[in-house]
Amino acid sequence: MTTNSTLQPELIQRFHNVIEELGPEQLKQMLQDMHTIRAFEERAEQLYSLGKVHGTMHLSIGQEATAVGAANALQDGDYLLNHHRGHGHCLAWGSDVNRMMAEFTGKETGFCRGRGGSMHIADVDANNLGANGIVAGGVPISTGVGLSIKMRKTSQVCMVIFGDGAANEGALHEALNMASIWDLPVIFLCENNQYAMSMPMPKAFNIEKISDRAAGYGIPGETVDGNEVLAVYEAVKKAADRARRGEGPSLIESVTYRYKGHSKSDKQAYRTRDEVNDWMENRDPIKRFGALLTTAGITSEAEATGMRDVALGIIDRSVEFSDNSPTPDVAGLMEGVYA
Amino acid sequence: MRELTYAEALREGLRQAMTADSRVFMIGEDIGVYGGAFGVSAGLLAEFGAERIIDTPISEAGIAGACVGAALAGMRPVGEIQFMDFVTLTMEQLVLQAAKVRFMFGGKASVPMVLRMPGGSGTGAAAQHSESLENWFVHVPGLKVVMPSTPYDAKGLLLASIDDNNPVIFVEHKLLYKTKGPVPEEPYRIPLSQTQVVREGKHVTVVATSIMVSRAQQAADELVKEGIELEIVDPRTLKPLDDAPIIESVKKTGRAMVVHEAVEMGGFGGEIVARIASSEAFDYLEAPIRRLAGKDIPIPYNRELERATVPQVEDIIAEARKLARGEY
């Protein structure tokens, strides 16, 4: 196993152009966002164990690089659709952490007025069309968003993030094919965390790379290290540029790993503790990116470490916001079904 | 007034909606050069081009998803499902996405889409091309369900459905496509959720949907010769339902029956019966409320078997006559 420190100079060389393109401020913000996502997820789990959360949750700890790399490759006005393990995507998109926490805890001030919860957080005003409780549910919708963009002749793109499990849903096939034949500006980002609940990827696929399926749709397919934030950024940026040029969709597979169970009641009998530890110790996306930025001289070690405290402060304030927020009034129960 | 067929009325509505609003477009299987399996979109490709009359691969879930996404992102799609049976392949997108996103997002997003589909039997298309599944959608909060029974209603309800900011399941009937009726040339809207008394009468209230409205009219023409008057009520929009005219009618006649083609068990008729029985009309009832609906079997192929599966004019006559004569 190659260690993080020996990787750094090689990575800095490899991502030289991306580092230049993003610039120090955005790179630092990306690392900060990864810390904030992790802190959000850790607090979410804690709130759950304290009995402060009514429903379930799907934590993305370990997958922060995919969310942050992808979101940073897009622009204001672009669209996002994501999946049930979606807190990180939403935070990386720039959606307000206070309103996210309020939604997670079922408050009226949440993004969905407490009607959606963890699995349905959407920030419609920012073209974040929401997380989805149905595996691959957002994928056919993304094709429709892409169709709308093409018909309205804007330079927007739509990114849909789905898991390895979703890659085996039938609707995904229809949606990818339609996006391809019509050259729609859609980025299909498969966040492969290697387990569809308990089903390991090798048991669910007879191919090594999910991105190989792109060939069947006549579109570019690429597999990247989903724990390397700059690799994700680079691939999504390339796909976005292609989409904006009117050349159509791309399929990107971002290989990552979730540290926590599928949801709240997962005993994780399908994998070993050693496997999880290996990913946590040797391939952690935050440690990696922090080391890269310090090695490259973009942050000091103290600054990189301090971001964790900044993140905890952000999350403390979001919990305070949600604690001070009203719960929805039952009198409003029937609102919002019809426009 | 000028007469059009039901299919022509729909086409005129589509043309007028697309002419008036560049956000409106059509998407479905074989709707372009072919003109749609039942010819509804014939000629529209030449008028509006392939960018707005979008032929799709055979991908019903993809069509539904494309409508949901396009609607969420500022367009007003009109999707076509070639046969209502195939809507089974779209259920996730309609029931779990289109119907729910607005509520799940706290009332933020809207999904202004129409999904047209022909239901019904009578063409010898057998069990997989003859379904009447409207009540599945009636059961889903967030959807609207519209079922026009005449060319006039087809155009007016379609234009109102396209204007509506919610997902509308628009159920046409294969046997109605070639039926003719008066249709004004100018665009007009029939507001959704307005039940209409389509024929006044004093003896029996017949609540009928889609093709059963014209069958009830034929039955009424026969029964009037015996001195029995049917009052025919067409909900037109099944969800959200305007039940007041139904209840008022039953208060007047004291006798009620519901006629629809869909299977009786779990069908829309049960809802109508329940609304009547739990309303003030209950006190006016002089007989049990009757249902006449599809038998609880798949639609068979053979002409006689097919005919025997769903209510026909003579069935309505027989049932209404019994009700009027107090034989229940």
Can you describe this structure?
The complex is a heterodimer of chains A (339) and B (328). With 339 residues, chain A is an alpha/beta fold. Chain A has a single domain (4-323), classed as 3-Layer(aba) Sandwich (Rossmann fold). Helix content of chain A is 47%, strand content 9%. Chain A has 12 helices and 7 strands. Chain A has a 5-stranded parallel β-sheet with strand order 1-2-3-7-6, with helices on both faces. Chain A has a two-stranded antiparallel sheet with strand order 4-5. In chain A, α2 (16-49) packs across α3. The N and C termini of chain A lie far apart (55 Å). Chain B starts with a strand and ends with a helix. Chain B has helices at residues 6-20, 44-48, 60-72, 91-98, 101-104, 134-138, 151-163, 211-223, 244-253, 268-277, 303-309, 313-324; strands at 3-5, 24-28, 53-55, 76-80, 114-119, 144-146, 168-173, 180-182, 196-199, 204-208, 230-234, 237-239, 256-263, 290-294. In chain B, α3 packs parallel to α4 and α8 crosses α12 (313-324). Chain B is globular, with a radius of gyration of 19 Å. Chain B folds into 2 domains: 3-182, 3-Layer(aba) Sandwich (Rossmann fold); 196-324, 3-Layer(aba) Sandwich (Rossmann fold). At the A-B interface, α6 and α7 of A face α3, α4 and α5 of B.
